[in-house]
Amino acid sequence: MICIAIANQKGGVGKTTTAINLGTALAATGISTLIIDLDPQGNASTGLGIGRAERERSSYDLLIGDLGVAEAAIATRVPKLSIVPATVDLSGAEIELVEFEERTHRLNQAVKRGGEQWDVILIDCPPSLGLLTINAMVAADSLLVPLQCEFFALEGLSQLLNTVERIRARFNPGLSILGVALTMYDRRNRLTDQVADDVRAVLGKVVFDTVIPRNVRLSEAPSHGLPALIYDHRCPGSEAYIALARELIHRLPPSTRAAA
Fold first, then answer.
1. What rounded mean pLDDT belongs to the chain?
2. Most C-beta atoms within 10 A of its C-beta, which of 79, 110, 179, 224?
3. Which of 128, 125, 64 is CA-nearest to residue 95?
């Protein structure tokens, strides 16, 4: 099992869209996948059609209770794709976590309780670098960073990478950067190309070749409780996520790739 945190402290960069559609693409290849919705907004849960009434157990229970991921996970409409949903209770979790001695390792402990039944676990992080995201980074083997093609992209990335270095030094020395995915790419905007070129110049091969375009169908799909890959698998956004999943699989350990 490999655990991947999808993180960027900036909101609106495509973290949840990436988690949902990468999870769907991986599951479609035969890789058993679990998404942990760690964002109090619960958009990944909603985007996969999990209603509020179905969220009896949630990621809040992983952090504050003693549940393992296997006890909180529920199946989605996508074969081989499960999710630990989020509820509004998660919004107060950071305050409650302060009381725990191992406050940064609560999610890691939950993942170790039953997480081995999945090949890949994707953690959809909130748009901050607080205790929820730190828990995700401590639990994760690697980090996938969705990066919006906009002017301040590299500035925000620098802050995130500094946090990663601190996590490595104090809690999780094995944490690696699996890749940076450029999102919301607009070929009509010259600045988009410039930002993409700058990011590749700084980070090199860490950046995935595939870029995720701005696409209306990607935005529409969550309102139907479906991943874009099911809502409209032929739209440019879906095709881009399928290509990104292929790249991602090649970066996974051989034992995980064998499941595909």
1. 92
2. 110
3. 64
- What six digits make up the tokens of 70? 């296997």
- Predicted confidence (pLDDT) per residue in 164-189, tens digit: 999 999 999 999 999 999 999 887 87
Residues 6+ apart with CB under 8 A from 38: 59, 86, 90, 107, 123, 124, 125, 126, 132, 133, 135, 136
3-state secondary structure the chain: CEEEEECCCCCCCCHHHHHHHHHHHHHHCCCCEEEEECCCCCHHHHHCCCCHHHCCCCHHHHHHCCCCHHHHCEECCCCCEEEECCCHHHHHHHHHHCCCCCCCCHHHHHHHCCHHHCCEEEEECCCCCCHHHHHHHHHCCEEEEEEECCCCHHHHHHHHHHHHHHHHHHCCCCCEEEEEEEEEECCCCHHHHHHHHHHHHHHHHHEEEEEEECCHHHHHHHHHCCCHHHHCCCCHHHHHHHHHHHHHHHHCCHHHHCCC
pTM of the model: 0.95
Give Rg (Cα) of the chain: 17
Residue 9 · residue 127 · CB < 8 Å: yes
Residue of higher predicted confidence among 201 and 156: 201
